[in-house]
Amino acid sequence: MDPQPRTNDRPLIFAVDDDPITTLIIEDSLAHRFQVEIASSGEQALQLFEQLNPDLILLDVMMQGLDGFEVCRVLRAHSKGQTLPVVMLTSQDDLDSIARAYEVGATDFIAKPINSALIAHRVGYLLRAHATLKALARQERQLAAAQRIARLGHWEFDPAQGRFQFAEAACELLQLPHRPRGFSLQQLLAQVHPRERTEVEQCLLSLDHEQRPPIQFEHQLCTGGRVLRQNVEYSSEFSGWLGTVQDVTAMHRSAQRIIKLAYYDRATGLPNRDFFLESLQRRLDQDDTAELCVLVVEIDALKRVGMGWGQAVTEPLVRNLSRRLMADLDIAAPEAPLPSPQAWNPDQPQLLARISDAAFALLTTAHNQASLKLTKRLLSALSQPLAVAGIELPMRAKVGLSDALDCDQDADTLLHHALAAAATACLSADKVQTYHRDLDIGERSRLTLEARLRRAIDQHELELWYQPKVDGRSGRLIGAEGLVRWRDPEEGLISPGRFIPLAEETGLIVPLTNRVLDLVCADLSLMHAPGLSPVKVSVNISAAQLDDERLPEEIAERLSSAGLSPQNLELEITERALMARLDSVLGTLSTLHRLGISLSLDDFGTGYSSLGYLGRFPIDELKIDQSFVMDLGTGAAGETVVRAIVALARELGLWVIAEGIETQAQATWLCSNGCEWHQGYLYSRPLERDAFLRLLDRRAPPPWSTLPCLSARSDRARR
Ligand code: C2E
Ligand code: MG
Ligand code: MG
Fold first, then answer.
1. Residue 622 pLDDT > 90, yes or no?
2. Ligand 1: lining residues by beta carbon, under 6 Å
């Protein structure tokens, strides 16, 4: 019989039997649901198989020629027959044949005589089962491919037997041989991070498996630096553990990169402000510890270096500073894998972070006295000057402290308090300030003051007042010091003590000094009016401006465009300012000196200078600080200091002047000890410009000329 081509998409059943009655029954029972093709021998079956490509074969075991077993064996070796459902037709009680049928790869058997009412159901069921198996195999292939792409594998662990079974992908990921034998739980545990090992072990060996939620752990392979994540959960289907292992190296690297960018400072590798705040908040949320203290270390020099030289110069300096701090605090640099704030171990005693360009923050449990002690140590660790572009910059660090008691468990506030404290620390002698509530108000009014001062400079609210310098023997006016005043429309006259430190800190000192120089040049021009006897005038220059090499040129330009000679001007620089910049300012001072502008060392005696340096600097005058003048004539220690300064000035060929003279006794003492130039309230308070101009009138004697101490002395003018 010629086989029929497939007529429709009904499943094709190929019945092979040499008994025509059986094939007739089969055809009769199945034809209503399936397309049925018949072969009457094994040879014919093999011949037609490829052409028919059936969905199921019913194969009689006993046939003339090739029997069913042989046909089945050949079919199973054929590429299209490997998974095909082959159902053997055997006699009812022929158990041997049934066993042999399974041996040669049969799917199932149907016993003869064939039950025509049931065979269609049986065939239908077998076809469905086959379709399910095929779909399963396809899904398995897809799963394997997906796992390969996702770098996933799985394993099973039978706790009763202590046996593992690994999928091939899992072997590859865990770097195990194909189908490893005798892999033990201990070997798996050895790959788990010690921190998680006990939990994983307890979980895998526990008896109440059903209660256990899935566990997840990550570990790094010793070889190749790959990171694997394993998820282990109990499966009641086979009463064991199902592990899924995934290679998360790439993910891990990306996550690390994100953490690094989001939470670490690029220059120092230290945690950044966000890290600090988040970790601090976790710490505050965890325990209501009042023991926590935040310390902010601000380094002014860094801001200035940043402004002057840019990042390329600041970064190595910041690294250097962070290393000094870490060494002092015994804090190790963060190591890979870098923790995020959520993964940071809050039990660590200290956390150091770089929170801005010029500030570090430290979270510590050191409290009260301990934190102050720590602060002192940090300041001394930072006290070494910084070398920048061949110059040594003094460090001038300041520290603000705040503790958790003050902040209502809020990280932002706690850090803000420490910052507010640091901002005002510059005003305290030891550069350390602990937060208290008044500081907030102080900081707010500082900000307002800064804005107002900026406006005051622009809108010419600054004035220059002049305090006479007098020859203490003759009473002759020999010069004046220009002292800035701020005439605020609302507050009236504000003295420099209130705004010069703020101007220095905020950089406003530069426009302020420019304004003072404009004023002094304009006033000097007035002093040269006919009928007046002009004198040399000094103005004060702030420490920070000495680093500016353009300063001498700018002053010279101002003088020349006002038609003034440099001899008319003197600059006062405090001894402290000079001491802090010994090496960096020599050039600036020398240029000023060359230009003919004289230099006076203000507040002399308070800067603890080693006197050896004086000879190296082009200084013209020493101005004895008023603190020494105060006690003169009473036999106090100040007298010895003043005598020494006068002797030193004489030795070095420098002028010497004393400031803050309030009594005749002080004036007399100074004159008899070789200091004849005086400045102080005894002679005159600082005067408004016009009042001072009147003093220059040759015809009028100065108001102090009637002082009894003067008339007692001879009139020997020196300047
Ligand atoms: P300084 O340069 O040491 O100025 C002397 C200060 O002592 C002045 O205070 C002056 O009014 C005051 N004084 C003078 N004679 C006596 C006296 O007999 N007794 C007492 N108790 N005080 C006396 P002032 O004007 O308040 O200036 C304070 C400081 O502000 C100055 O100290 C100076 O360092 C700074 N300063 C003033 N004007 C300027 C300026 O234009 N630029 C800069 N950068 N600083 C300035
Ligand atoms: Mg002065
Ligand atoms: Mg002074």
1. yes
2. 467, 483-484, 495-497, 500, 516, 539-542, 572, 602-603, 626, 659-662, 679-681, 686
Q: Which atom of ligand 1 is nearest to the CA of 496?
A: 30
Per DSSP bridges, beta strands 86-91 and 359-364 are unpaired
Degrees to nearest 5, angle at CA 638 with 634 and 639: 65
**Helix, strand, coil shares of the chain as percentages rounded to 5?**
45, 20, 35
Q: Model confidence over 339-369: pLDDT tens digits? A: 999 888 877 778 999 999 889 999 988 666 6
Could you tell me what percent of the chain has a pLDDT over 90? 47
Distance from C-alpha of 353 to C-alpha of 274, rounded to nearest angstrom? 9
Token representation of residue 38: 């018949």
Question: Across the beta sheet with 432-434, what order do the strands follow?
Answer: 351-356, 359-364, 293-299, 397-403, 432-434
Closest to 339 (Cα-Cα) out of 250, 275, 292: 275
Cα 685 to chain centroid distance, Å, stands at 53
Q: What is the pLDDT of residue 1?
A: 54
**Full-model pTM:** 0.51
> Helix crossing, 273-286 with 249-263: angle to 10°?
100
**Cα angle 575-579-583, degrees, rounded to a multiple of 5:** 130
Which amino acid is present at 291? E
Q: From ligand 3's centre to the CA of 602, what distance in Å?
A: 5
pLDDT of residue 718: 40
Using pLDDT thresholds of 50, 70 and 90, give the confidence band for residue 308.
low
For ligand 2, the distance from its centroid to the CA atom of residue 161, given in whole angstroms, is 92
- How far apart are the C-alpha atoms of 144 and 483, rounded to whole Å? 86
Burial 502-533 (b: 16+ CB within 10 A, else e): bbbbeebbbebbebbbebbbebbeebeeeeee
Angle at 672 between CA 669 and CA 676, to 5 degrees: 90
**pLDDT tens-digit map of 662-711:** 999 999 999 999 999 999 999 999 999 999 999 998 788 899 999 988 87
Question: Which domains does the chain carry?
Answer: 12-143 (3.40.50.2300), 151-247 (3.30.450.20), 269-436 (3.30.70.270), 448-718 (3.20.20.450)
